[in-house]
Design goal:
20% strand, 367 residues, elongated
Amino acid sequence: MAKIKPVRVNLSTPAEEIIATMRAEIPVALYHFRKPYGGRRNYEVAEDKLLDKALADKQSIMTHINEYISPVGNRWMTYTMVDYYKNALYANATHISFIYYETYGSCGAFFPLYNPKNIIKKRGKEQADGVLIFTSHFFLRMSERTGKAYRSRELIQEFISTKSTQSSQTDEDGEVVVKFKGGYGFGVEKSQHPRVVEVRTYLTDKQLSPKQRNKVQAVDAYADIVGEGMYLPEVALGTALNDLANPGKLESESLKRMKALEKFGMDKHVDYMANITMGYVRLLEDILHIKVTEQQNILILMYATECGIGELTKEYLDFNNDTATEEDNLRIMSDTIDLYCRIARKMELKSVNRETITKRMKEIMAE
């Protein structure tokens, strides 16, 4: 995208200008959000405490909402949502910044959209490449159908505090369904490159027609899958901890989850992580001359997650053996060996070290 100066955003602003404005202003909005904590480092300490609290209380937490007006006049709201995933025994903190507008007779909001692939690979460094717009008509209908006050920023604050978990799907006709807690938004995908989604009306679950109820089935299915965490390695750790005594159940649930994720184009991430983990299992069996049991397999998965298999997966998700250089191959082998050594130390396998792992990996590659 060519460099575009930030502009004051409204419903008629071209998508490229909205996205460029968001990219330029989100870091500043985030700075102002952290400022009351005493800066970034102090905020990170506070965030760690929030994560601990979410895990201790077994529930999601939302921080205060910080408001900021940019030099060109855009009104920003920024907050952190700490989501607790009960089945994964895991909590994740997400910073959310969006532009809102408020006039005498209307209000609306512009949320940045991120490519799911970039979220997996560049977590914390991804940039907006689309925009999700909630129109004034959406908020009017939400106000009418939920009995909330209208024409004030409090309505928007109510919206994000009670409906912060969002999942969306677009059908072949370009109609978009967005799922919230207790309701659905309906709208259209106005363009794909860049992606612009406009949500125009709101219905509670009880107000859906039979046709609309059919339309929300896909988004409900997707929400069920990602409701236990977007990042599969983290979910795998929680599942392993919970099902340690029942490996058969873990295998069944894992297969079910992988098949479901295939429908949403995330199976490559699952496969890559599984290949690295199974590669380690094979190494152990070859080096130690043992058969790894299902129980040990779960422990390996758990330790692999602790030792950084998720980061390795994100780093090399698009690794292409056909176009990779010798240097590329050496780098991924070195990083994989480092991961395997960390797992071996976790498992207290004294006879499995860097030398034995490297030797056996070279033998396997030569086979």
